[in-house]
Structure formats: structure tokens, C-alpha cells
Amino acid sequence: MEEGEGRHPTEKVPLEKIDEYTWRIPKYKPGMRVPGIVFANKELLEKMQNDRTLQQCTNVAHLPGIYKHAITLPDGHEGYGFPIGGVAATDYNEGVISPGGVGYDINCGVRLLTTNLSEQDIRPKLAELTGVIFDNVPSGLGSRRKDFKVTIHDLDSLVMEGVQWVIDKGLGWSEDAEHCEEQGCMKNADLDKVSTTAKNRGLTQIGTLGSGNHFLEIQKVDKIYDSEIAKIFGIEHEDQVTTMIHCGSRGFGHQICSDYLRVMERAVHKYNISLPDRELACAPGNSKEAEEYYQAMACAVNYAFANRQTIMHWVRQSFQQAFKTDPEKFGLKLVYDVAHNIAKIENHKVNGEQRKVWIHRKGATRAFPPNHPEIPSDYSVAGQPVLIPGSMGTSSWLLVGTEKSMQLSFGSTAHGAGRMLSRSAAKRRFWGGDVKKALEQRGIVVKSASSVVLAEEADPAYKSVDMVADVSDKVGIATKIARFVPLAVVKG
Amino acid sequence: MAEQKRFEFLEHTADVYIAAYGRDLAEAFENAALAMFDVMTEVATIAPVVKDIVEVAAEDEYALLYSWLEALLVKFDIEDMLYSKFKILDLQKTGEEFMLKAEIWGEKFNPQKHTPKVGVKAVTYHMMEIVKETDNVTLKFILDI
Question: What is the helix (H) or strand (E) element at residue A330, kind and residue range?
Fold first, then answer.
């Protein structure tokens, strides 16, 4: 089959240039309630025009109760209904909540750990450490630990307590929860709103990395852009070793999304909501369906926080095993854990007035400014850490939230690189073995459960994460603090 | 359209976009299932030694395809089962509902034997198509991975 064949035709979406990094989609369709706003440079914008990203942004602008504009971030690409790399805020009462605005992998997110080691300290042990991590952290298709089992009773506590449940089980340090978005637990979780199938999928997958674009990397600080703020987050110097964990709520969250998409399909008919695309299926914010989805979604959010906490604990243990020293000696402190796929109730200023809104962040990172009550007290002067992982083998970024993100993007910024090459095209172009070799030639240790994943996740398949971080910084919706490059990659 | 082809992977930036073919809807459903397991591992390595029965019901044929694939995906997630042989015994509309009953054959996932490819997160309705012609049916759908 030829490249491009079988695709749905993409229609031309009108764009008005506001400045070098801001584009406006005018209300060119009668059903659009607000305009669209796209934050991108020319190159990123052209990539968005190759798929249905901008059409989807236009569709989102039709949602009942949507405020200001439908937002597409620099890493925007085509998703299910909503583009990935997007934000939509709807009125708490008059607006709607949509599972498609969160995504299948609820609370897919990232956490960053610092160490007090430098690259030269870790080099001699790097291959061994990576091997130990690969053994300790289940990664890839169907992989799980035999010695970590969660019962249905445990699952109830886990989704109610999130990260704290894992810490109380002895898998973590007491200060870890404070350095997570929502302190690692949304309070409105209710497992009764989750199907038996979802629960069963959740039981087998807690404490697993998964596959696809999820990864665990040992990284080093490549460049510091603001040393004062970097220090507040524990980033002291270039060459400092850090660790990044990227994964989500696994089959538990996927099933919850799937189950509630059906609920919302019915709700669309029941409440007579007119939508340009059935994938935007949603329910009025004040309906029973909305409340139940939000409670079930919170279960998946907390599950994902707990999942990353569990994996982080095994990473700390792996350092201990490889270096035969207590992990505390290496620092291994949690800088922050952020969600990339989530819906929240937040207060935002709209046209000078405070509004209670449903925020949908799909492939978007919350980016709250200094002194915001929702961020950890020790980061208060700095602002909220924003973590943007790159694709395999490329750099990852630490940014910090800004006041401007509150004005422009409902306190949000980009979340990653965003694919630009299809998986099949990547597989035709690359071979897993070559991808591994190329990374190894750059001194990067690679452990992967699947050679296919290595080919599909090859770096040229993604847009430049550096460009995504740069545009975020230039627009002012987050400020660059530090860039990391990988020393070792563990892939599912 | 090549008749011998059971399924193929189409171009899609982020996810897996599949076209599954069959002489009728039932055969196309069988091949759609095979394609999904081919995303996860080499289907040729899955020995059809354990038999199971799957029954699903849904409001239309699109939802039936979704539910059929989801039921199989859940079997992998919960029971660690991979399948390589599918026989739709019954696929019909009864009253307002569409229902499907199938025999499926496979074996337990063993990473030593079944080279892991990519895990499937979910089936989606995104760009789903069911195209029926006189003597063949084409299904198109996207798996979120």
C-alpha cells in the first residue's frame, strides 16, 4: 500500500498569524463557539497540517460551554476526537466533560529523579545498573513481577489513596507524595464506578512500564538554562545523573476510557448534544454521567501515580543492588511527577472573571506559576516543574510553569515530541538492531523487550522535542530550566 | 484488492491502522482478530492448542467489531492468552442487537516463544469503516498503542 492511501482526506483549515509562534483558527464554521489557537513555529505547524490536528482543534471549538479557545500546543498531532497536545476548558455547569479530551491512557505521565552522581561515577556500572533495572521493572508485552501482587481489596485502597498507599506498603519515602501533582491522589476516586473488566485488567498490570512510547531512562543534565531555579528542583550541575520514568494507568485506565466512551455516546443522545464528530462524545458537566466518569477517571489517575511510584521504588532498589549502597546515599529524590492526560476542575480567569471549569489536558502538562496553592511549598518561589520527555535517544526537558500560561493556555504547556512518522513507515525505514547499534555508538546503553518497538520508536519518527520546548519557552507558557540526554534506555 | 491477503497495516502517524478482509463479515472479523494479535507478537508462533468461546453483543456492527476485539484484548490482559485461530460460529442481528459467537484457539503467552512486539492499549472507533461489497468485506480500524 502506498504512503497516504487509506487516509481520510484532510480539509484546509484557515489560519490567521498572530505572531511568530501563535496562530488563530477563526470561527469559520457556524457551530464553532470559540476560535482555535495553535502555538507552533512554521515547521511544527506544517507537520500539523499533514494530518487532522487542526480539524480536530476546530471540532473541539464546537464543545458546549467551551471558554476562550480550543488550544493546540506545539507538539499537537491527530488523536482520538481531540488532538493530542491540546487543552480545552468548559464551564463547570454549562459545559461538558469528554473522555476523548483525556485519552485512553489516563494520567500517562512522567516523573523525574535526581541523583548526586556525575556521569563518570556511573559509567563503569552503567550497563550493570541498566540490566538490573530491566530485570526489576517489568517492561514490554505481558511482563509483570511474580512477587508483587495486588488483590481486589488492595485495588480499592490503592485507587483511593494513590501514591500514599504504595509508600505505606514500604515502596517509597514519606516525602515522595508531596512532589506529585495532586500529591499523588485525586480525592474524588470511587472504584464502584469502575467496571469489573477494568478492575481485572488493573490487577495484573500495576507496577509495569508497558510498551510503545513508554520508557525509563537514566539521563544526565546536558545544559542548565536557569541555575537558580534548577537548584530549587535539585538540579545542581551539568553531567549530574537523573532518571526519568514515563508510563501511565495501563489496561485499567484504557478500559475505563473505553467503558465511559460508550456511556457518553448514550449521553450525547440523551441530552441532545450536537457534535461535529462522534468521537467527542461527552456529557453535561452537571450530569450523573459526568460525575461518574470523573470518579472513575480519578481511580485511573491514582492508579497511574501509584504505578510510577512502584516503578520508582524498584529503580531505587536497582541502584542499591548495582552499587551495593543505600539508595539515600545517591540522592534519588523525586523532583516531580506530572500527568499528561487528565481532566480537572480548576478555577481560571476568563474575561476578567473567575470561572470554575472542566480542564481537559490531553497530551498537555499543567504549568502553574510561582506561588500557586496547588504546587509543593518548597517549589513555591520557583513555580511548578514541567517535564517533557523526548523520544527514545533524544533529549528530555525540565521547564517551569509561568503566569503567562494561566493567561494563554489555562495553565498548561506541551508534553512531548509527538510522532510524525507512522509506525509502519518507521519499521520500513529502520530495523530494531540498527536502532540499538546507533544508540550504543553514542554511548547509550539500550535494553528493550522488543526489537519491533525499537524500530517503531526510532528517533526520526518523532518531531524535535527541543523545538517543542523552545516554542513553549518563546510563547511564555513555560520556561526552560534544564535539558537532559540519555545515558541508558529501558523500553517495553 | 488481493484476495489472499487476510489483513494489512495502513499508514497512521501515532497508532496502528488495520485493514482486514474477508469473503463475508464473519471472515473479516476473524482476520481483524488475527491482525490485532499480529501487532502484539508473531501470530505464526501462537499454537492453537487451547480452545475458548467468546460471545459479544452490541447495538450495531461497528460496536460489535469494537466489542469483539476488546473481548480478545481483555483475555490477553487478564488471562495472558494469545490467539491465532478464530472461527465465527454465529453472527446475526436478533431484535435490536447484533450478536457474535466464536470459537478461538491459542495458548498462554510465553515471551521466550512469542517474541513481544507492541502492547495494544485499546480498540478505537477512530476512522472505523465496514465496507461490504458483493463478495468481500473490508474492515478498517485503529488500535491505540
Answer: none
- Asked if residues A174 and A483 have their Cβ atoms less than 8 Å apart, the reply is no
Pairing state between β A479-491 and A445-448: parallel
User: Which sign, positive or negative, has the C-alpha torsion A125, A127, A130, A136?
Assistant: negative
Nearest-neighbour CA in chain A from B48: distance (Å): 19
Cα angle B56-B59-B63, degrees, rounded to a multiple of 5: 65
Share of chain A above pLDDT 70, in %: 98
Whole-angstrom distance, CA of residue A215 vs CA of residue A211: 8
Look up cell 476578567; give the residue.
Answer: A352
Q: Does B5 touch chain A (CB under 8 A)?
A: no
The CA angle A275-A45-A261, to the nearest 5 degrees, is: 30
> Cβ of B116 under 8 Å from any chain A Cβ?
yes
Put simply, the answer to whether B119 touches A3 (Cβ < 8 Å) is no
Quick one: fold of B7-133? Archease, Possible Chaperone; Chain: A; domain 1 (3.55.10)
Distance from CA of B32 to the nearest CA of A (A): 16
CB contact under 8 A, A142 and B145: no
Whether B74 and chain A come into contact, CB under 8 Å, resolves to yes
**pLDDT tens-digit map of B51-94:** 999 999 998 999 999 999 999 999 999 999 999 999 999 999 98
Q: What are the chain B neighbours of A5 within 8 Å (beta carbons)?
A: 10-11
Q: Chain A, 76-115: which have a CB under 8 Å from a chain B CB?
A: 77-81, 84, 104-105
* Interchain pair A140, B109: CB under 8 A: no
Note the pLDDT of residue A7: 45
Q: Is A348 among the residues known to form the active site? A: no
Residue A335 · residue A398 · CB < 8 Å:
yes
Beta-strand runs (E) in B11-61: 16-22, 50-58
Indicate the residue of B14, B111, B127 with minimum beta-carbon distance to A8.
B127
pLDDT at A407 over 70: yes
Rounded Cα distance between A91 and A291, Å, is: 14
Average pLDDT of chain A is: 94
By the 8 A CB rule, do A309 and A163 touch? yes
Q: What nine digits make up the cell of A323?
A: 552499587
Q: At residue A49, what is the residue type?
A: Q
Predicted structure pTM score: 0.94
Shortest distance between the Cα of B141 and any Cα of chain A, in A, equals: 11
ipTM: 0.85
